[in-house]
Amino acid sequence: MISGDEYGILHRLILNDPIQPSPEGVLRLLGFVHLYSASGLHLLALEAFLQRLIGQSVYRKKILTLLFWFFIILIWKLQGFRLGFARVLVLFFLRALAREKGFKWRVYYPLFLALCFDFALGINSGWQHYYLAILGGMLGLELAKDQNVFIQHLYLAVASWLMTAPLDLYEHHTISWMTPVWSMITIPLIALILYPLSVFSYVILDRIPDFLMSVWNQGIEMLLKLADHGFTFSVVNESVILSSLIFSIVTTVIFLKVADKKYRKLFIISCLITLFGFKEFNLDTKVRMKLIQLDVGQGDSLLVKKNNLTEMIDLGTSRDVKPEAMILHLAKYGENQVNSVLFSHLDEDHAGGLRLLLPWVPTDHVEVNSNLERTEMMRNWLQFFPTTTWCEKGCFKSGSVDWINAKPASSKKIGNSGNDLMSTVMIQLSEKEIYLALGDSDSKQEEIFWNRHHKEIMMYPRRILKISHHGSKNSSKMDFIEKVSPNRAVISVGFHNHYHHPHFSVINLLMKEHIPIHRTDRDGDFEWQ
Ligand SMILES: [Zn+2]
pLDDT digit string (tens) for 426-466? Predict the structure, then answer.
């Protein structure tokens, strides 16, 4: 067990032992593929560096080669001789053999070998990313083997990215533009310093010294901060994917066919310019109001989009939904960045997604119901998110979405229970339609809310009601449902959740009233536009 490994990176790199919840998926999506996925790539960089040190001396070459293999076997042992790492070993071994024997085809064969190896073991989608990154790196190193260390690293970083980017485009409709830049920073730092130091201190001391641990953790935090910019990551549409796939195939073919190094450089530059240029095609100029109740398992999350501004109410839980799945979920709707977030309250199933969604969500645009002021919950929250706004009326400061007087539902004096401190949102969808959500309110709060706001609500002939507290039996009493008389009820609920939400009495009531029900566990996202 490695203590203090807050982000789980060393568990992954050294022990192949994931910790949950960890921001691994988010970091990968944002383009930090080499933080975790490529023990192989780190070893590759380490080997390239050692080769430099060796020079022409046969004696030193033998010692350093032995040391390198000792290091590889050591890591493999720490990882419990897992099968996946054997792929790296096979690649390294055959590459060394090909080099030793002076094979001319060594530039291309990592691709061939990696494919054969994975076909033999059975293709797994996670592996594709992994071996593409490694073989891209190998290819890059082979192509730049006579160049200086900086150029070699540039080739390694760009080539491994060029191999993985089309897969990301194809699978997730996303692309991380800054990956080669991140790799230029992280690969040398991790491969040459942090990784070997951590492995050896773990083996010798049976722990990793605090200062080293804090370098790791602060490094990751710094990277997350660096990635907190819209330009680092894009969501793209089908036509862009198709053009970039064709482009990458053509480029690869030309790249491999053209022997002249002068042209290779030219191709790399034109490649980067064209790929960055693709981003410009992705401008969405439509101005429309869109509202999506996201299926986030047992929790709540609403996406509101208007005039290219994206705002969210609650972010679901980190228990049911992996943060990267949440980002890809948003990517499906073309979202690159969330502009601000409002939390109905701070329970895990509504606010738990925030910490791991960083840096997707700008923490200086987080708003929480001001009823929570001075509570224990607020004090805990402020330790992590000191720039949170405690919103008087529970509405976004930016005002980009038409909120209607969304006051907290409770008028009771401040208690400590999250459900007593619920805020309510009303969103005007059109002249005639309104969306109403009371968070995890109970029937008492629903009543208070109704008494205060019924006039405003009744101005809208069509009403979408998100059923309170995931369909709990303590909310949504007949009186309230009859009065609101929604045209549609939405229940945000996890499949087979252990609270047994939604309660059959609530479902019965809605059916009796002939109100169509959309359940996220059964029907997925609820989309309105
Ligand atoms: Zn809840």
Answer: 888 888 898 998 888 888 888 888 888 888 889 999 999 99
Asked if 504 contacts 519 with a C-beta cutoff of 8 angstroms, the reply is no
Distance 316 CA to ligand 1 centre (A): 9
Q: And the tokens for 79?
A: 């990882």
Q: What is the mean pLDDT of residues 317-341?
A: 78
What domains can you pick out in the chain, each with its CATH number? 9-235 (no CATH), 290-528 (3.60.15.10)
Tell me, in angstroms, the distance from the centre of ligand 1 to residue 133's CA: 40
Rounded to the nearest angstrom, the distance between the alpha carbon of 113 and the centre of ligand 1 is 50
| Residue 490, CA atoms < 13 Å, CB-side half-sphere | 25
Q: Are strands 389-391 and 425-428 parallel, antiparallel or unpaired?
A: unpaired
Q: How many Cα atoms sit within 13 Å of 196 on the Cβ side? A: 20
Structure confidence by residue, pLDDT tens digits, 187-229: 888 888 888 899 889 889 888 899 999 998 888 878 777 776 6
Beta-bridged to residue 343, according to DSSP, are 368
The rounded Å distance from CA 317 to ligand 1 centre is 9
Nearest residue to 91 (alpha-carbon basis) of 144, 49, 127:
127
| Cα 441 to middle of ligand 1, angstroms | 9
User: What torsion do the CA atoms of 423, 424, 425, 431 make, to the nearest 10 degrees?
Assistant: -150
**HSE-up of 9 (CA within 13 Å, CB side)?**
30
From the CA of 108, how far away is ligand 1's center (Å)?
54
* Phi-psi label, residue 261: left if phi above 0, alpha if psi -120 to 50, beta otherwise: alpha
Whole-angstrom CA distances from 235 to 168, 177, 332, 452 are 10, 11, 8, 42
Per-residue pLDDT for 165 more than 80? yes
Answer yes or no: are the C-beta atoms of 317 and 347 closer than 8 Å.
no
